[in-house]
Amino acid sequence: MDDKTNDPAPSRRQIVGGVTAGAAMAAVAAPALAQTQGSAQGGSQGAALGSGTGTTPPLPLAVPHDPRDAYPRPPFKVQTQAAPGLAGRMEPRPDHGEASYRGTGRLMGRKALITGGDSGIGRAAAIAYAREGADVAIGYLPAEQEDADEVLAIIRDAGRKAVALPGDIRDEAFCNRMVETAVREMGGLDILVNNAGMQRAQQSIADITTEQFDATFKTNVYAPFWITRAALPHLKPGAAIIITASEQAYDPSAVLFDYAQTKASNVAFSKALSKQLAGKGIRVNAVAPGPYWTALQPSGGAIPAALAEFGAKTSLGRPGQPVEIAPVYVLLASQESSFTTGQVFGASGGGGFP
Ligand code: NAD
Ligand code: MG
Asked: Which terminus of the chain has a lower count of CB atoms within 10 Å, N or C?
């Protein structure tokens, strides 16, 4: 988990009564603002919001709303899943923008590959990219097919090509194949989002096996290297590479000793590679999220008991929902940020770095 909630120290519980007000506002305004791009967006994948459980229509973007109450606040139900976890089994279900993200053609005709695009932050980016006009290929583990199927349907509903790339990115040969397949199926590549990640919380360094340490580094550090190296020959001037780092790169939790080191590595990836690729007209940036409500957390990323207070220590008193960070991925991929390279964008609900 990516905030201090994962630290064993007790956290300050911040519960406000505003959820009711926020939910009521959404319920009133949502029908007028519902997406009209296809049934999948407003159907079973509709946002599941509220306080801990239940469903609430997505908040309308046209109406200013209090960010403290915009999405579920702790306490959350303590829940666990086997890794890699499924977004579809979380309570409440994360909001990836299924019913709310509206595109304005900012990525029209682009071709994007997003690793870990089945759930969480990658899924929110995939939905946003498709609705901004991009074809989208998503990488994911075979065990996540049911989450991936939902995303693929949403991409197609947006009128874009969807490419499914199941497989394990800890395998270099698979990484090479994944890129080649994405390029072949979409007819090129303009945007690469290295987003897949593994996080396993452990109270002590003594509890971290060599297998865990190796898997965390293979997934979070080696794979972006392999995937980016394979993608590079296909990227032309104007292309964008984005890597999902974390606030853990700057302010690590005690229980994320191995993970935090990989995320610091992701920041260096973006800083060094941006200098290298500027001469080719390719931009490279990193996103450093704070705590987001994703399948990563109940599937070993968080100490289970700490999940109840997940996000409570942010300034806004709650975790982010994946949809809330999707616009950062859109901006970094689009021509609008043409002078932005080698940067790290934070979105942590207050506090944290950068
Ligand atoms: P998530 O579990 O929804 O997404 C991670 C995805 O990584 C999985 O869906 C899976 O498809 C993919 N993945 C993991 N191991 C893989 C493997 N061996 N082969 C292929 N794919 C694999 O969780 P998320 O929180 O959306 O994570 C996305 C990124 O965000 C990760 O890099 C994570 O480190 C980072 N992040 C998350 C948070 C947070 O609080 N959720 C905070 C900061 C950074
Ligand atoms: Mg997943």
From this structure: C
